[in-house]
Amino acid sequence: MDETDRLRERVRQLIQSMPVPQREFAAAIGLDQTKLSKALNGARRFSPHELVRVAEYSGVTVNWLLNGSDDAKTVTAVPAPAAGTASDPDDLAHSEPRRRILETAWRLIAERGYHRVRIADIAQACGTSTAAIHYHFPTKTEVLDEALRRNVKLAFDRQVAELHAVPGAHDRLLKLVELQLPTEGLLRAEWSVWLQVWNEVALDPRLRSLYTDSYDRWYQTILMTIRTGQEQGVFRLADPEAATARLTALIDGLGIQVLTGRPGSTVGAMRAHLHDFIDRSIVQGA
């Protein structure tokens, strides 16, 4: 059984564990039932986007889907236990209400802001009671904690899905930049949550260890990609750590400028600045 066969078998296992039939599973991940059947039968491959949706809906990681383990060695750094989420295919039915609550809370926080979202708002959007929300998340602070972990998981899933078949470090680094741009939709929502987390961390020291573990996964992903580029002979820089610190800081600063609407700050301009930095400081090693 090769890697693709094992992937299909894991997705079948997830579908069998869910409390809904296969057609509803397909609809939930935004995939036509016929396409899902073809992917399960080997007539087509799951796209990176489809893998992310399967993992998100099922409560597992893309790393688990592809490699059978959340912490398997892959092309991106694995989240620290405190910042990650563990896959549990045998407990999917029980975890579905929690997943739906967290997804709704995360979306509301991204759209309205952390301090403008009440537990009652989350309950109303979920069509449930505040007691049901408090059963899973006793306080709103715990919702923010889980929103941060969800951001980490979404980024991890997306990177593993997109990068696992990209062998070249240069192409991989450019893809990592593309996956971090605050384009409209999911990525902009992730940035919105990160901005609010940064603010809360500055005010609440209790959140700092979780934030540090979360941010470190992204930092280590960039660092390991740059070091791989050195090994492949495509990056000529002398100090990978310094380059990683500058590149991640540049991404953060430019992303904030885009989200806050600074005149002249656009996703396109952010991409151009980052590509220029990579070319001059990492590829050429200036």
Please describe what this structure looks like.
Pfam families: HTH_3, TetR_C_6, TetR_N. Residues 118-137 bind DNA. With 286 residues, this protein is mainly α. The model has no long low-confidence stretch (mean pLDDT 90). The protein has helices spanning 3-17, 22-28, 33-41, 48-58, 62-67, 92-112, 119-126, 130-136, 140-163, 169-180, 186-203, 208-232, 240-259, 267-283. It is globular and about 55 Å long. It has 14 helices and no strands. The longest helix is centred in the last third of the chain and has 25 residues, at 208-232. It has 3 domains: 1-74, Orthogonal Bundle (434 Repressor (Amino-terminal Domain)), CATH 1.10.260.40; 95-165, Tetracycline Repressor, domain 2; 167-285, Orthogonal Bundle (Tetracycline Repressor, domain 2).
